[in-house]
C-alpha cells in the first residue's frame, strides 16, 4: 500500500470490495468495450459493411485492456475516449476502422455511467433488504418488552423495544420503494451523436429513418435494458444523477436517525451496539464503550446527504445540449455517494445484527417514571371509588410536581404513589396503587402493531426479495 499519496478513506476503510469494483477503472473500460461491440453488432445487423471477423476480434480483446498504451496515448491527445479507441484498435487491427463508428464520447461514457449506477443500486438494494430483515427479527424478539418512550427526549407514554425498531425499519422500507422506482426507471442514453440528433447515422445509413429508429432499442437490448431515453442532448439528462443520489441521501437519512437513537440508548445503558472483546473505547478511559459504529454511520450519512447537492446543482447549470463542467464533479460525487452509502449499510448490517439489550436497566428507568404515566388510570380508579374528577386532576398535578422536585432537587426516588396513598381524596391504598404499576398495561397496542407490521408489511417484501437475503457485513475498522 502506498503511503506517500492521498488514498480515499472510502476505499481504504469504509466501502466493500464489491462496490469498489463496480466503480473501478476495470469495470468502466470493460463496459466501454462491451458498448463498442454492441454498437458494431447493431450496425452490422442493420446493413453496414462490418464483418463477423471484425466483431470476433473485438470480443477476443474485450477484457484484456492494454492500459499502458491508453495512458501513453492520453498524454498526447488529452482525450480519454479516443485514447481507448486507439488502444483497442491496436489490439484489433481488422476492427480498427469500425470501432466507435458514428458515436460520440458520451456513447461509452454516459451509457457506462447508467450501467454502473444500476449495478450500484442493485448492491445497495441487497444490503438494504437485509438491514430491514434484521430489524424485523429484532422487532419481533422484543415486541413485548416495555420501555420508556420519549417525545422531545422527555419521558412519555411507554412503548416497547420492538415497536421502536419498527420505526427504523419503516423508514428503510420507504427508501427501498424509492430505490426500486428509480432503478426501474433508468434507461440508457443510446447512441444519439454530438447534439442528440443522430445526424451521423443519417449519413451512415443514407437517410434510412426506419433503420436509424432501430439503433437505440437494439443497443439497449444487448446491454440488458428495456429502452433508451427518447430524447437527449449529447448527454443523458443530469437530472437522472440527481434522482439516484436522492435515493442514496434518503437511505443515509434513515440510517442517521437510527444511529442517533442507538447512540442515545447506549448513553442510557438500555441498548448497545456490538463491542468486540479486544476493542478499545478510549485511549485514556479504559472502561468506555463508545458507540463508534453508530457514530460512523452518522458521520458518513451526513456526507451522503450533503453530496446529493452536487448532482442537483450540476443538473441545474447544464447549458443547452451539454457542457463539460459536469465531468469532474460527477466522477467524484456519484462514485463517492455510492461508496459511502455502501459503507453505511455495512455498518447498519453489523450493528442491527448484534444489538445488545439490557432489560433490567430498561425496566428500572421505566418504573422510575411509570407513576407519572399511570396517573390517568389512577385518577379513573379514584373516580370509581367516589372521587371528583376535576378535584382529583388538580391534586394529581400538584402531587406530581412535588414528586418531580423530590427527584430533581433532592435526588430521592419517585414517591408519587406514596403521596397519592397519603391523600384521603383518592381513597386508594399504596398496595392498590402498586398493583397498577405493570409496565405492559401502558404500552397500548405496541406488540400487536409489531406483529401486523412484520407480517403484513415486511414479510411480503422479504418474500419478494428472498434471493437477496443472508448478507453479512465485514467491518474493517
Automatic annotation (TrEMBL):
GO terms for biological process: 'de novo' AMP biosynthetic process; amino acid biosynthetic process. Residues 370-454 form the Adenylosuccinate lyase C-terminal domain. Pathway: Purine metabolism; AMP biosynthesis via de novo pathway; AMP from IMP: step 2/2; Purine metabolism; IMP biosynthesis via de novo pathway; 5-amino-1-(5-phospho-D-ribosyl)imidazole-4-carboxamide from 5-amino-1-(5-phospho-D-ribosyl)imidazole-4-carboxylate: step 2/2. It catalyses: N(6)-(1,2-dicarboxyethyl)-AMP = fumarate + AMP; (2S)-2-[5-amino-1-(5-phospho-beta-D-ribosyl)imidazole-4-carboxamido]succinate = 5-amino-1-(5-phospho-beta-D-ribosyl)imidazole-4-carboxamide + fumarate. GO terms for molecular function: (S)-2-(5-amino-1-(5-phospho-D-ribosyl)imidazole-4-carboxamido) succinate lyase (fumarate-forming) activity; N6-(1,2-dicarboxyethyl)AMP AMP-lyase (fumarate-forming) activity. Its EC number is 4.3.2.2. GO terms for cellular component: cytosol. Keywords: Amino-acid biosynthesis, Lyase, Purine biosynthesis. Belongs to the lyase 1 family. Adenylosuccinate lyase subfamily. This is Adenylosuccinate lyase.
